[in-house]
Specification:
The protein is about 50% helix and about 10% strand. The chain is α/β, with parallel strands linked by helices and about 210 residues long. A five-stranded parallel sheet has the order 2-3-1-4-5, with helices on both faces. Helix 2 crosses helix 4 and helix 6 (about 130-145) packs across helix 7. The chain is globular and about 40 Å long. About 35% of the residues are buried.
Amino acid sequence: MRNFVITIARGYGSGGHEIGVKLGEVLGIPCYEKQILDMASEFSGINKDLFLQADEKLSFGKITAAFKGMPRTTMVEPNCRDFVSDENIFNIQAHIIRELAEHQSCVIVGKCGSYILRNFDNVVSVYIEAPRENCVASTIEKLGVTEAEAHRIITKTDRTRALYYEYFCEGGDWMLPTNYDMTLNTGRIPKSHCVEIICDYVNYKFGSK
């Protein structure tokens, strides 16, 4: 089998990150999420803190001006005033993700991976979601917050991710099922079984490892 990439988009609290990490362990390939920010910082020389600030977020003053300004597909030179803009930071991360897809098998969690790699034929894209009550319970367990605070965190995080996707992915809908090879509901399918299903699909699509 040639190198392949599994992209994981996920609702907050659905277990998507956990599934991505487990997939990497089972398949013996790296799982990248925050590590992409490290690689993008090293590649560009831009302080990692700027990538952390922009990670699946936007400078919210820009949302009303979405789809205006500089193209969101091309990196700019270091001497350009837009070198540390949200757009260029996204483009640098996108460059890293494409390089990974070209050269190694891996799992990529978040980062608009399914959109960035939409024209690659070695990609399986998965969306992980769960009912709100499951996400709330997971968030309470993980963060030790109240139920009300868990609801607030989930709503804010998912809204931010949706706006980020819409802005950088040509107005796309982050939750649209047709963006993905499959959508899995961890409220109905245990996370361990989700891993098995995705592995089976990888083998079906690309042949045995």
